[in-house]
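The protein record quoted in full:
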Amino acid sequence: MSGKIQASNPYSKRRAEEETHLLANHDYSDEHGVHSRHTAAVINQGDSSVADTTIDQQQYATSPVRWLVLIAAATLNFSSAVNWVTFVAIADHTETYYGVSTFMVNMLSTVFMIASLITGLAWAWLLDNRGVGVGLWLGMALNFLGALIRFFSTFNSSGAHGHFWLVMFGQVLCAMANPSGLYLPAKVADIWFPPKRRAFANMVSSMSNPIGMAVGMAIPPMVVKNADNFKQSFGFLLLVLAGVAGVNAFSTFFVCRNRPVIPPSPSADETKISKLPFKQGLVKLLKNRSFLFLGLMWSIGIGTFNVFITLMQQMLCPYGYSDKFTGICGAVMSVAGLFGATVTSIYVDRTKKFVLTLKVCYAGAMVSILGYLMVSFQPHQEALVLTLLCLFGGFGYGLLPIMIELAVECAFPVNVGTCSAILWMCGQLMGVVLVLGTQQPLFERKLSPSQQLISTCSVAHPKDMTYAGLFTATLGTIISSIFILFFKTAYRRLHSERRGSTSDNDDNDDTTIELHY
């Protein structure tokens, strides 16, 4: 939008010059949240000295539809997380009902990490090139189809066992949908929300994942209790979860859009700031030292989390803790994580202190998990176990949306979908390595006589997973210490938005830029 002010007398000339000066140095937001930037130029034409002021106005606005898109992304993340950990807290009952080994039961959750590695780049390309709406639709469809097939695994005329390979096939389809839910939070926040709300929007969508995990760990032990009604209880549980996925899939078709008509910020405005193509972005990420180190940190963090979630029931039952208590532990950890992520996202939105916030969260998470391991190896310590897992959840989940936002900042102008995809793929790869590696004989030992007296494990030959937990926590502590002591990076996206353009020189900028809004 442009307009002109012309002066035909000295008074008008002076007034035009004053308005030109004010407009050239004025950034404002009106009461409706529309952000405008004005630039002006004065042109002198010979002796007539005509003041010609041109006002270029670029509008940025927030659309109310953004909340519907955010809710859709959050519900996909929630449903996918529930399906991921459905069998974690009832691993022993699942082993009995489906007639398979403990390793195969653990594969029901491990397959989510494997599928993320296989389909991760495809989802990244889809989100960056086809849009948020297409990614949501396809993710919801796969998630619902997989949940429905899992329910069909309980259809058995003999009633002795469920069809394990059918439930595994359904789990694979759910796992293929999982990357869309994991990658969407940063993408939705970048395209639909202004800078002051990006971390908060990322938190809302990201934290629906641990909330889903809390539900997925707390509910199954309440439904599946004993061997007398496994067929009915497993069937009811999987039917309800398929229904939730179906409702989410149906509702998504009415709210999804790829992007708003008017962008909310310069970084979301394709006419102002251009982002790198998919292949070029991948190459750029591999040359970005800050992003690579963040990827390592993220990998260790996600890998550690996956080990403790996947093996939690098998770690606690030798010391007398019940399946119901295991489910409560997962729920408490996730609820505390929701609180922690809310606090960190609001703080970072206001201060932009990404690195400091992450260092505090990593320190708190590592101290908490080490304390949890020391306490959980003793029976009858429910209160301390819950307290330490509460702290671990608060600090651990608190860094999740901040880490993704920081990765986007230091990797800009690489597309948001590509950044989040590479992070999650690295994390899932480390999760697969650690989960499978810690189930090897090197980390397993038979229960001691004292453990056998108090064990609540219902499998025939339970194992003590103490060494697996200690190894994983030690690895996380070492890497976290390096991060806390040495990491720094530039906030390139914020810097670019302040200047209104991208620059290749940003790739060589190692100075941390603290910008306040």
Q: What stands out?
A: Confidence is low (pLDDT under 50) at residues 1-57, 501-517. The radius of gyration is 26 Å. The chain has 19 helices and seven strands.
